[in-house]
Design a protein that fits this description.
Number of helices: 9
Cofactor: NADP(+)
CATH class of the largest domain: Alpha Beta
Pfam family, one: GDP_Man_Dehyd
Order of helices and strands: EHEEHEHEHEEHEEEHEEHEHH
CATH topology of the largest domain: Rossmann fold
Strand content: 15-25%
GO molecular function, one term: GDP-mannose 4,6-dehydratase activity
Number of domains: 2
Family: Belongs to the NAD(P)-dependent epimerase/dehydratase family. GDP-mannose 4,6-dehydratase subfamily.
CATH architecture of the largest domain: 3-Layer(aba) Sandwich
Helix content: 25-40%
Catalytic activity: GDP-alpha-D-mannose = GDP-4-dehydro-alpha-D-rhamnose + H2O
Number of strands: 13
Largest sheet: 7 strands, parallel
Strand order of the largest sheet: 3-2-1-4-5-6-11
Radius of gyration: 20 Å
Length: 319
């Protein structure tokens, strides 16, 4: 099989590409410019989510059997600063890719990455595929539009499934995300490189899973006879305080001595707790997370400890 992966240089795209290559598939990865991460074995095709014609050319060049559309602006707060660009890069780009896929002279199966941000103030928790969608951010609105487009194209015969993914993490997550901020901070404090970690609301709740588990579900979806939408989540809500406790325990540090809450970082209380119900994915895909929360955070801390330790060690001199 030949797969085209958008967002190939990001967390999910790079993990998925490695999985596909390990299984013997050909992988083309959409990039806007030369990536700053190693993508061994991936054939790069150039395109920009803000440039419709470049996306069409990339699809035609890749000649894919599968398209995994993972590319999008991923840091939700930035969508307030660039709402038009966010909507174009998510909703409009998705429409272009669906249209390009449907225009190929082959049967193409498509996976589109959606987000728990579509639910917003849904009024019920946990959320499932039938829960009300009341997004509260430009990012959430754009992702909901893209999900609706998937349903429209599915009605026109395109084999397109959408994964409504809740927070999913790995050591490849950028440090601006709270999970990586916490694991990196715990590692830095353990190594004596920092003395405190400044956070916002410690009682904020998220549903965290491992990125590798969520990405594996994307593969399962394109292999199904019938396309559909699926919530991808652990089904367990955890607070930022729990995240801190697990990360600092993995680093061997007492968090009470090093955590400082900055009220400027505290957001308004959550009206609806963002927790997903993955029952449909369990029943129809046979999908179950394989990496526990504690294992995930422990692995991220261990990575950051190694990375920071290596960065502070002087380079070895030549004999």
């Amino acid at each position: 099989m030949r797969a085209l992966v958008t967002g190939v240089a990001g967390q999910d795209g790079s993990i998925l590409s490695e999985m596909l290559l390990e299984d013997g598939h050909e992988v083309a990865g959409l990039v806007r410019r030369e990536p700053d991460v190693a993508l061994d074995g991936v054939r790069l095709v150039h395109g920009d989510l803000l440039d419709a014609e470049s996306l069409r050319r990339a699809v035609a060049e890749a000649e894919p059997d599968w398209i995994f559309h993972l590319g999008a602006p991923s840091f939700v707060p930035l969508s307030w600063e660039r709402p038009v660009e966010t909507f174009t890069a998510i909703a409009a780009a998705t429409a272009v890719l669906f249209d390009a896929a449907a225009s190929l002279d082959r049967d193409v199966r498509v996976y589109a990455s959606s987000s728990s941000e579509i639910f917003g103030d849904a009024g019920e928790s946990p959320q499932n595929e039938a829960s009300p969608c009341r997004p509260l951010t430009p990012y959430g609105v754009a992702k909901l539009a893209a999900l609706q487009l998937a349903r429209v194209w599915r009605g026109r015969g395109l084999h397109v499934s959408a994964g409504i993914a809740y927070n999913h993490e790995s050591e490849r997550r950028p440090e601006r995300f709270v999970t990586r901020k916490v694991t990196r901070g715990a590692a830095a404090i353990a190594l004596g490189l920092a003395d405190e970690l400044v956070l916002g609301d410690l009682d904020a709740v998220r549903d965290w899973s491992a990125a590798r588990d969520v990405v594996a579900a994307a593969r399962l979806m394109v292999e199904q006879d019938e396309p559909d939408d699926y919530v991808l989540a652990s089904g367990v809500g955890r607070t930022v305080r729990e995240l801190v406790d697990v990360a600092f325990a993995a680093a061997g540090v007492d968090p009470d001595e090093h955590i400082r809450v900055d009220e400027a970082l505290v957001r308004a209380p959550q009206a609806t707790l963002p927790v997903g119900d993955p029952e449909k994915a369990r029943e129809r895909l046979g999908w179950r997370p394989t990496i526990s929360f504690e294992e995930l955070i422990g692995d991220m801390v261990a990575h950051d400890l190694r990375d920071l330790q290596a960065a502070r060690e002087p380079p070895s001199s030549c004999p």
